[in-house]
Structures are given as C-alpha cells and as structure tokens.
Design goal:
A hairpin with a 6-residue loop joins strand 3 and strand 4. This protein starts with a strand and ends in a 27-residue tail after the last strand. The chain is about 10% helix and about 20% strand. With about 100 residues, the protein is mostly beta strands. It has a four-stranded mixed sheet with strand order 5-2-1-6, with helices on one face. It is built from one helix and six strands. The protein is flat.
C-alpha cells in the first residue's frame, strides 16, 4: 500500500485558490480497474483508492504515514507562473501582431 503526499493545484475553471493550501494523502491503486462485462462500467476492488486525507502541513502527512507504516512518496508543489495582462495592452501601438476584428 503506497501513498502519494502532495498539495493539489488550483482548479482550472475557478479563479480562486480554494482547497490548495492543505496537503493531501492519496493511496495509489494496488490493482488496475476492470470493465464490468454486462453494463460496461469501470470498477475496482481497491477500497483504499476512495480514501483522501487532508493535513495542514507536509510534516503532519509524513508523520501520519510513518506512524501507520504506509510507504509514501512526497511531491513538492510547482510554482505558479502568473502573467499580468491588462486590457489596454490589446490596443498598444507596438504589438507583435496587429489587432483586428
């Protein structure tokens, strides 16, 4: 049973940073998903894949994994590259491509 400890990234469809401050522990799947032959649904017998634990800090998540004997992998968060763009930049005289409709 191996776990992945990471900080979730920002949701692409929202502008806020909600649910990105906590560290999450997810269990990696032990067996592949199977397709149920009658209905074609995807299923799994691995119940640990349904468990998600949130922690305030990375150290708390690592301590939990070590205390319970869970093998883990820590993934450091990537820095978000933000560009500051203003609406008036669309009408600059020195644009690379001319602005047209």
């Amino acid at each position: 049973m191996t776990a992945r400890i990471y900080r979730p990234s920002k949701n692409a469809t929202q502008s806020g940073m909600g649910k990105t401050k906590l560290w999450r522990l997810d269990y990696l799947p032990e067996s592949p998903r199977t397709i149920e032959p009658l209905m074609g649904w995807t299923s799994s017998s691995d119940m640990n894949s349904q468990i998600r634990l949130d922690f305030e800090t990375r150290e708390e998540a690592v301590a939990y994994a070590e205390r319970n004997g869970i093998a883990y992998r820590v993934e450091e968060p990537k820095k978000a590259h933000r560009r500051t763009v203003s609406y008036s930049d669309n009408f600059r005289n020195n644009r690379v491509a001319p602005w047209t409709h």
